[in-house]
Amino acid sequence: MHVSETLVAQAESPPMRIALGPDGRDVRLAGELTDGVAERLARLLDASPRVERIHLTSEGGLVEEGAAIGALVARRGLVTYVPDYCVSACTLAFVRGRERLVLAGARLGFHAPYESGPFGIEIEADSAPERAAYLAAGLEPAFVDAALKVRPDELMIPDAARLVAARVATGVVDAYRFPDSTLDDGPDAEHARTVILRDVPVLASLEAKAPAVIEAITMWYLDGYARGRSEGEAVDGIRRMAARAVAGALRSAEPAVVVALGRLTLRALDRVGPERDDACAAAGEGLGAVLTRSGLGEPDLALARAALRHAVFTEAAPEAPEPAPLATRDCGGLRRALTAALALPPDDAAGALHPLLFPESVLAHVTAQAE
User: Fold this and answer.
1) Checking CA distances to 204, which of 91, 136, 196, 325 falls within 20 to 30 Å?
2) Which of 242, 364, 226 is nearest to 313 (CA)?
3) For the chain, which ranges sit under pLDDT 70?
4) Among candidate residues 179, 174, 212, 218, the one with its CA nearest the CA of residue 196
5) What pTM was computed for the model?
6) How far apart are CA 123 and CA 104, in angstroms?
7) Distances in Å between the alpha carbon of 73 and those of 56, 100, 110, 136?
């Protein structure tokens, strides 16, 4: 269990957004719980009989609104789902769900209720109503005691295992389970670009060099969000599109650049810990996947960006992606092949590295795109 030093909040909280998701089965609620939010939600639910789930992304707000939203959730028998964070008064809504699900890595934050005193000072308020609400929802009493002892300017953010053990959440789901909620607080091109560049940092190098690539990925992402594509599918697709664009641009790189990128790929394969399997899978798909999926450190990211600044982009934009049928590679064998290639003189090394970094199936795809 972790107690944060400050509340999860933004300098300027975005306006509350309440929207009906694809097929009318999901409601997306994102923003601060200000006066009237529960009433807005009630109107939407009255007009939307097929709603089954509510996605909650909120830094909290008015306790009365959180409790009122919780009452609506209970009355409709909705499933509550937290894809990112739900803190403070938001948790009063979350715990009323028929099922209470969190995305792996999402955060629920708890603290004692407070009132604003003179000069904006936060004064702890009577916690009896919150205690009663949490206990009525079936939360473990010891958990409730601990949560309501946290100072108003701090947060208790338990891990997923503790949330389930304390009966706060009924389960943890992966990113492929429900429609993506990443853009719930701003489903527009600017927010989409921000998410894309956050998930695939190397793409920042392409904004000036190949803006059509960024534009195509952004439009694909926004379209999928509107259609109800899951977050997992969205991230996979963004990375595949980025990988194809990067592979197509770097396949004609100078020998010295190819050698440097070969060393980068070998470093990715030599990682230890939970990232190793991801790095192995990415290396098996080629250099494009390594640069877009392996969680590069800053030195390797700088090398990749430098290579892309001098790359030649022959395609205007990657097509909407489908998983490419690539032969499974043995990571040990690939590591040995990279090591042997890098031991050759530079020009020979580049030639030996090329089929390792640009698997034929990837090259065939980007060549067809360019023609």
Assistant:
1) 325
2) 242
3) 1-14, 115-125, 272-279, 294, 314-329, 360-371
4) 218
5) 0.80
6) 33
7) 11, 11, 19, 14
